[in-house]
Write a structure and sequence with these properties.
By secondary structure, the protein is mainly alpha-helical. The chain contains 5 helices and no strands.
């Protein structure tokens, strides 16, 4: 775990009022795999598992696609009934495309 480096920029962004108990932001490669790199870094201290994690997540989404599709559809209907916005706005809200 000695290969892990503290991310000084992210540390500077944390509000002083926020108390992080033994937690520090770590630096990882900022590319299209950054989420998988961060998960691998957390699990083993390096990026060696990032490809495995990505493959496992792809397998999860493929094997249980009906569940995830239904969940998204349910969430879409929930938001559509709660907000007087267009379908495009509701879909963008669900998927995080603002």
């Amino acid at each position: 775990m000695s290969a892990m480096r503290k991310d000084e920029f992210s540390t500077a962004l944390i509000l002083r009022e926020v108390e992080l108990k033994n937690c520090i932001p770590l630096k990882t490669t900022g590319n299209a795999n950054c989420m998988f790199n961060a998960a691998s870094l957390l699990l083993v201290g390096n990026k060696s598992l990032s490809d495995v994690i990505r493959l496992l997540i792809a397998g999860e989404l493929f094997c249980f696609s009906e569940f995830y599709i239904q969940t998204i559809q349910d969430r879409f209907l929930e938001i559509e009934n709660e907000m007087p916005y267009s379908e495009a706005t509701a879909f963008s809200t669900i998927t995080g495309n603002f």
